[in-house]
Amino acid sequence: MEIHGGSKNENLIDFSISVNPFTPGWIDAMFERCKSITRRYTYVEWIEDEFRQKFDRDAVIVAGATEAFQIIGFTLMREANVITPSPSYGEYERVASYNARQIHKIPPKNIVELDLERIHKVATESVKNNRTILILGNPNNPTGKYLHLKDMVTDLANRGVIVIVDEAFVDFVDDSKREKISHPNVIRLRTFTKSYGMPGIRVGYVISENFKGLFERYRSPWVIGGCGYAFLEFLLKDDGKFLKESTEIIRKEAKRFEKIGMRTDANFGILKFKDPKSFQKKLDVIGIHVRNCESFGLKDRIRISIRTPKENDKLFETLERRIR
C-alpha cells in the first residue's frame, strides 16, 4: 500500500498531510449528530437535491475524491489511453493501471513544472485513434501551483478528450486566481474534508454534465456513513465564514514560507533537500513529520503543509538550526 502522507504517531505535528489545520466551530455538534444517526442507514440521495441547489445542479456526492477515482478507473478508463503529467498525485496512475489500454506519463520541464505543450500534443494525437482521458490536478500536488488551464482544457474537450480536473485543494486558492472550466467532456473533482480539516470523514463530489449518471450508478450506497451525512447537514447550514477566515490565515502564513523558498497557491508546497529521507527522520525525532516526494518522482524534494502560526514557528526554528 502506498502511503499518501500521514503518520501513525499521533504525537507528531503532521506537516505531511495537506489539510486545513483548523476545524469549524460546529464540529462537536456534528459528532453529536453523528452519534444519533449511526444506528440508521443514511441515503445520500436524501440530501443531494438540497446540495445541488447550493453547489451545482450537475453535482454528485461521493465518498471523497478517492471514490470518484475508483469509479473512473473501472469505467471510463477501460481500454482508454490515459494521460497523466508528472509530478502528480500517485492515485491517477494507480487507478489508470486497472484497465487502461495505455498510460502516457508526461515528464516535467525543469524537474517540477508541468509540460503543458507536450500534454496538449500527446492528447491531440491520441484522441484521433483511441478514447483518451487526461487527468491532472489544479492546484498541482505536490507543488501547490495553480495553473490557468481553461483554454487548453476547453480545446482538448472540444476535440473529444475527456478531461478530469482534480480540484481537491482549490478552496485554498485565492478567488481572484481561479478559473471555472465548464464543458460536457470535463469532470471536476472536489472534496470538503481537506478544506474543513477532517480528512477522516470521506465526503466529496464531482461536477459533470455528460457523466453525472455514471457516478450516480456506480457510487457505493451508504459509503459516506453517519458522520459524513452529519457533515453534509452542517455544511449546508454553514455560511462560509469558517472557510473564509481559516484560508485567510493560511494564505498569510504562506507568505512566511516564501522566505524559505516555498512558493505556493495552495496550503502546501515543496522544498529541495539533498537527502529528504534522512531529513524526514531527523524531524520525526524532534516531533515534526513531513512528506518526502519520492512517490511523486521527486527524490530531492519534501512536501510541507502550512499549519497554524505556532506550529509553523516550530518548523522555522528547526530549519534555522540548519538541520536542513
What does this structure look like?
With 324 residues, the protein is of the alpha/beta class. The protein has 2 domains: 90 residues, Aspartate Aminotransferase, domain 1, CATH 3.90.1150.10; 211 residues, Type I PLP-dependent aspartate aminotransferase-like (Major domain) (Aspartate Aminotransferase, domain 2). Helix content is 38%, strand content 16%. Helix 2 packs parallel to helix 8 and helix 3 runs parallel beside helix 4. The protein is globular, with a radius of gyration of 20 Å. The chain starts with 12 loop residues before the first strand and ends with a helix. The model has no long low-confidence stretch (mean pLDDT 93).
Structural class: alpha/beta
Domains, number: 2
- The rough form would be described as globular
User: What is the N-to-C order of secondary-structure elements (H for helix, E for strand)?
Assistant: EHHEHEHEHEHEEEHHHEHEEEH
Give the N-to-C terminal Cα separation: 29 Å
Give the count of helical stretches: 11
Q: Beta fraction of the residues?
A: 15-25%
Oligomer, anyone?
A: single chain
CATH topology of the largest domain: Aspartate Aminotransferase, domain 2
Unreliably modeled segments: none
Name the CATH superfamily classification of the largest domain.
Type I PLP-dependent aspartate aminotransferase-like (Major domain)
Please write the CATH class name of the largest domain.
Alpha Beta
Name of the CATH architecture of the largest domain: 3-Layer(aba) Sandwich
